[in-house]
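Lab notebook, design round three. We kept the backbone fixed and only want residue identities now. Task for the bench partner: fill in a sequence for the structure below.
Input structure tokens:
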């Protein structure tokens, strides 16, 4: 006896459910993966450049404030 079922006018066979995975060209998949990795590295590089600039800017601000503080202290002592 056939285990097929008729559901909504379509014959359904028992077994695996869902769609079969589409056959993706392996070379295309690898190229997409490489491109994604390149883009990720580029974003990471930009993020680190931004953070380094931010740190440098804050360090300059700290130096300027220390100099200002030293001037104020010296002015009050005299």
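Proposed sequence:
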């Amino acid at each position: 006896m056939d285990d097929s079922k008729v559901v909504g006018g379509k014959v359904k066979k028992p077994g695996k459910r869902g769609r079969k995975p589409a056959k993706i060209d392996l070379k295309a998949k690898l190229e997409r993966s490489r491109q994604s990795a390149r883009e990720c590295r580029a974003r990471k590089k930009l993020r680190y450049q931004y953070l380094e600039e931010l740190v440098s800017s804050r360090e300059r601000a700290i130096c300027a404030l220390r100099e200002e503080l030293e001037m104020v202290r010296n002015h009050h002592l005299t």
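Keep this in mind before ordering anything: The chain has a mean pLDDT of 84.
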